[in-house]
Specification:
single chain, alpha/beta, 7-stranded mixed β-sheet, 4-stranded mixed β-sheet, 16 strands, about 35% helix, Aminotrans_3_PPA_site
Length: about 450
């Protein structure tokens, strides 16, 4: 048993807040943070509370007790924190029930959410499987595709095709379609199923489509069609794989090639969904629809974990005609009423306002604030799309130094690899947006 902390009494459910030094000591001993060693080598900041677009710290860091959140808590808190509409949705649902199993039971928040998602996503997505997290929704999407072909008597169609530079999550099947060389999961090369990888799409959202690359995609899908269950890609923006943007035209190429060669198409909209790129879903830039779409992150406005895999009637009916006519997947917290209720409220909150203008305003602010960054030493590229701003360096970022510089500017950022970037909440005001840009510039200079 670990020794008790000085002061005695052990650790009980929080009633009186623990002092920051005690919290940090407990954190160092016991808490394994994402993408970090155990024990951690970098001391995290202790967040005491959050409201609007600000994180309040329990102890000063670099002279700051309050930081503007430039990350939307990993791209999810699009409405900021403590939004009264979302708070009320959680409170109202909590007065009814916090959870009930979804096997054999149903409830209004989940049904409303599924219907709302079908209403706002591209036709012909009609059926919704609610999951715990984005990565799990990709697992479910892959399982749908594999089972579809088995049900049709074609079990040999069991590989996936994607392009390099992608990221789809940290569970098993999603790891297999993350970039196998430059990504976070190359440790598992030789263990994960070997998928088919196309070259990374040429960069540039506004760049004209490269006919040679389009031909490369068509040829690869055609060559492997007999063994491919699906093509799985992030549309328009490749997120954690490198924050790169590509022409929407390649989505149309994929749709046409998948139709021609009888391969399913999956769009991972976990990071891009709910307006982040300037379209409600990034597929809208291309005007095409996938056979399966994954959504998450901003689905609940950052309040609770929930994601979904939507599919067409073709996929659902194909599975239902098989020898095993059910999708054998059932998370314990599937369809959680609290998460479903706040997701419904978040979607309505987004669509009841001029969200597209808000995102366009943020895009303009990021372009203006980062306009001079291309001339800075060490900055290789500057790119902005919707409410996404990216500075790509010509070297691996010193994350600790870059984070400290951003905090000194009063901004919370989370750089990685050779990237310093921001995805602010849509409610970020112009003055705070300028501060975020200053934090990006400071982090790039320090990192």
């Amino acid at each position: 048993m670990p020794e008790p902390l000085a002061g005695g009494g052990g650790v009980r459910a929080a009633r009186t807040p623990l002092p920051p030094d005690v919290l940090l000591e407990l954190d160092r001993r016991h808490v394994w943070h994402p993408y970090g060693p155990m024990p951690g080598r970098q001391q995290p900041l202790v967040v005491e509370s959050a409201a609007g677009v600000r994180l309040r710290l329990a102890a000063p860091a670099e002279g700051r007790t309050e930081l503007i959140d430039g990350m939307s808590s990993w791209w999810s808190a699009i409405h900021g924190y403590q939004h009264p509409v979302l708070d009320e949705a959680v409170r109202e649902q909590l007065s009814r029930m916090s959870h009930v199993m979804f096997g054999g039971l149903t409830h209004e928040p989940a049904v409303r959410l599924a219907a709302r998602l079908v209403e706002i996503t591209p036709e012909p997505l009609r059926h919704v499987f609610l999951a715990d997290s984005g990565s799990v929704s990709v697992e479910v999407a892959v399982k749908m595709c594999l089972q579809y072909w088995r049900s049709l008597g074609r079990p040999g169609k069991q590989r996936l095709l994607t392009w390099r530079g992608g990221y789809h999550g940290d569970t098993w099947q999603p790891m297999s379609v993350c970039d196998p060389d430059g990504g976070m999961h190359q440790l598992w090369s030789g263990v994960l199923q070997r998928q088919v990888f196309a070259d990374a799409p040429p960069p540039g959202f506004d760049a004209p489509a490269d006919p040679a690359y389009a031909g490369h995609l068509r040829e690869l899908i055609g060559r492997h069609a007999d063994e491919l269950a699906a093509v799985v890609v992030e549309p328009v923006v490749q997120g954690a794989g490198g924050m790169s943007f590509h022409s929407p035209e390649y989505l149309r190429v994929l749709r046409e090639a998948c139709d021609e060669h009888d391969v399913l198409l999956v769009f991972d909209e976990i990071a891009t969904g709910f307006g982040r790129t300037g379209q409600l879903f990034a597929a809208g830039h291309a005007g095409v629809a996938p056979d399966v779409m994954c959504v998450g992150k901003a689905l609940t406005g950052g309040y609770l974990t929930m994601a979904a895999a939507l599919c067409t009637s073709r996929v659902a009916e194909g599975i239902s005609r098989g020898e095993v006519p059910v999708l054998a997947h059932g998370p314990t917290f599937m369809g959680n009423p609290l998460a479903a209720a706040v997701a419904c409220a978040s979607i309505d909150l987004l669509l009841d306002q001029d969200w597209a203008q808000q995102v366009k305003r943020i895009e303009s602010g990021l372009r203006e604030g980062l306009a001079g960054a291309a001339g800075l030493p060490g900055v290789r590229d500057v790119r902005v799309l919707g409410a996404i701003g990216v500075l790509q360096l010509d070297h691996e970022v010193d994350m600790a130094a870059a984070t400290r510089a951003a905090v000194r500017a009063g901004v919370w950022l989370r750089p990685f690899r050779d990237l310093v970037y921001a995805m602010p909440p849509y409610v970020t005001g112009d003055e705070d947006l300028a501060r975020i840009c200053a934090g990006l510039l400071g982090a790039a200079a320090a990192g």
